[in-house]
Amino acid sequence: MKKIDMHAHFFPRITQAEAAALDAAQAPWLVVDGDGETGQIMKGDKPFRPVYRALWDPALRLEEMDKQGLDVQIICATPIMFGYAFAADRAAPWAARMNDLALEHCAANPRRLKALAQVPLQDLDLACREASRARACGHVGVQIGNHLGPRDMDDEHLVQFLTHCANDNIPVLAHPWDMMTDGRMKKWMLPWLVSMPAETQLGILSLILSGAFERIPRSLKLCFAHGGGSFAFLLGRVDNAWQCRDIVRKDCPNPPSSYVDRFYVDSAVFDAKALRLLVEVMGPEHVMLGSDYPFPLGEQQIGRLVAENPWLEDADRARINATNAQAFFGLADL
């Protein structure tokens, strides 16, 4: 059975000097250890995250894809690369450079490696321009963060960007980042375990409850990472609130559960019962295989959760593993 992993990350071997063109104190860059196998993403002068060679080396990525039985992997920026906090006139060339490096990474095997672009989302015109440029250069879509500072996905700025992507046939992956925290979740990776799923649900519900989906063309191809976060499990609570409270349904003309056909989610939920609920809520035609590779919180045996659940029909398993992603990203037959 064919397998397309549509949620995987990369980080190029950029130096501190290159990063300084974006911001000397805060921009990310990469230190590779002496063995060449491991490294550290840096944020200015401070370590941000330990990583290993697959993040920057396409040869190792392809080798591990072979071991995992993957036909295609779609890579996107590690979210620290977004650069939304910096001046747009510096973030725009930074995004273009990162996008060119992503295509260089994929050039190791263009049939098996595809890329999602990043954009300077803080400037609408520049973001739309880079999204379309990257699409024309070979990217199969764009990845954006689920918010822009205090502005969630229902903000008109972001709605206009999504509308541009709909009109220009640019698929979008919305990824949580810069997770909500006031310091109460400083240990045990709680921002990743609590805030990250909440951020994803916030992105989805901001589009639904604000009425933004009524303003965005139905042609938009939009996917949320990490199984849509908390969305599937809490959808009943949201529908109940919509039925019982007029302040919830004020801007949302239809029950929240009626909007599940407007977006997709990946399969990175790590639990058989969670995946079953996700498929039942979203429908098998709106779930795509995604691993979050090559990070420790990703699915370590990519596709195993989908493969080993007997309640999935083979036709639905095939949809999740590859067919949905082929249609979503407009990929040629494998």
TrEMBL record:
Coiled coil: none annotated. GO terms for molecular function: aminocarboxymuconate-semialdehyde decarboxylase activity; hydrolase activity; metal ion binding. Transmembrane segments: none annotated. Gene3D superfamilies: Metal-dependent hydrolases. InterPro entries: ACMSD, Amidohydro-rel, Metal_Hydrolase. Pfam families: Amidohydro_2. Keywords: Decarboxylase, Lyase, Metal-binding, Zinc. Residues 4-331 form the Amidohydrolase-related domain. GO terms for cellular component: cytosol. Its EC number is 4.1.1.45. GO terms for biological process: secondary metabolic process. Pathway: Secondary metabolite metabolism; quinolate metabolism. Monomer. Belongs to the metallo-dependent hydrolases superfamily. ACMSD family. This is 2-amino-3-carboxymuconate-6-semialdehyde decarboxylase. It comes from Candidimonas nitroreducens.
